[in-house]
């Protein structure tokens, strides 16, 4: 009991705010009506010597315990008084490298993480990060000028956003296919240029493009292939699939064996009756 009280005292400061070693706590509230505060834990993003990280040093703020209703836009707005925010990235878990930026799709984006996340906030200048570490709060996520929907309103908005516009979806799919076709054409042109050209070590890359084209099948050959496939499927068909079919087949087999046995007995009796004693 005493050890538990000591641990609780170590986790809380004199003001009763939960603390985390090495982190500063920033209280936030969803709105003015909320009585209790939620705490973000922030510190400067640092890595060990010799470890590579794509996040800029001295300007990146690492944030823990980001609630689901706090989006990247909300974090940027909450921390903008500290300095100009260059970028905000929410992730499921900490990573040393920033994920490559790809054009976001309104229809094919992966689902957001349904829970608490971590964030990397990059400021334009190092002073912005220092000011963020000294924030006291509480900060309001949803205000009159920047309302954040929650509850039923958020569900309705999410459902409305999940229903795609057919015309917009068609435009995006067409644009994606044009980009894909252009990429495939460039790869084929590059492969055609490199075909038969030896590399630095004198090796020549052999591809399927250099093979002799296969002659088209005749009608007779196609019919033979179809007949072969039909026989193969017929052999693979399941016989006596149901239990009652299997049972009837066994009973018919037993009946045939019994009938043959009786016929053999009659034939033997007939042979014995026709047998005569011939001493000469």
UniProtKB/TrEMBL annotation:
SUPFAM superfamilies hit by this protein: RNA-binding domain, RBD (SSF54928)
Limits of the Rrp7 RRM-like N-terminal domain: 21-78
Domain Ribosomal RNA-processing protein 7 C-terminal positions: 162-280
Record flagged with keyword Plastid: no
InterPro entries xref list: Nucleotide-bd_a/b_plait_sf, RBD_domain_sf, RRM_Rrp7, RRP7, RRP7_C, Rrp7A_RRM
Assembly and interaction partners: Part of the small subunit (SSU) processome, composed of more than 70 proteins and the RNA chaperone small nucleolar RNA (snoRNA) U3. Interacts with NOL6; required for NOL6 localization to nucleolus.
PANTHER family: RIBOSOMAL RNA PROCESSING PROTEIN 7-RELATED, RIBOSOMAL RNA-PROCESSING PROTEIN 7 HOMOLOG A-RELATED
Protein's UniProt name: Ribosomal RNA-processing protein 7 homolog A
Top-level taxonomy: Eukaryota, Metazoa, Chordata, Craniata, Vertebrata
